[in-house]
């Protein structure tokens, strides 16, 4: 149980960090998200779980974050129980198969401008992050999907929406978009 809770929160924090990183580099996204929040929620209360059906752009930001910055590069291993063919490749019985989530999220044959952060690509489209949509399969599917998926997604949605709704996120004056970095550093900065 501890792993489910820990996974759901650590992964959520990382997704929120990547979302903020991308939005700070493109302030138009913050503006559009805040306009949606003001229009649908108003300024007199915080965003709640039952509000998310009215916030497609917030969901699009989250989907685009998971597409471009998957939390895990490779999804959990699977084992072929018999010889099979997958996408024209022969997989022998007993072979361990890993799905490269990082690569599928940047595949130019699937995504227009695959390396660009564009939440609009998900607006008005029904795209699931579980199931059989292998281009955006971030949490596995079926009985072996991530058990913390629902918890993690609720944390990301609620936290990101309320950060955007309650605070004005912007770069310090004089900081250029290209100066923003997600490079890891040790110590307190």
UniProtKB/TrEMBL annotation:
A Pfam family matched in the record: p450
UniProt keyword terms in alphabetical order: Heme, Iron, Metal-binding, Monooxygenase, Oxidoreductase
Cofactor: heme
GO molecular function terms listed in the Swiss-Prot or TrEMBL record: heme binding; iron ion binding; monooxygenase activity; oxidoreductase activity, acting on paired donors, with incorporation or reduction of molecular oxygen
PROSITE patterns registered for this protein in UniProt: CYTOCHROME_P450
Family of the protein in this entry: Belongs to the cytochrome P450 family.
Name by which UniProt lists this protein: Uncharacterized protein
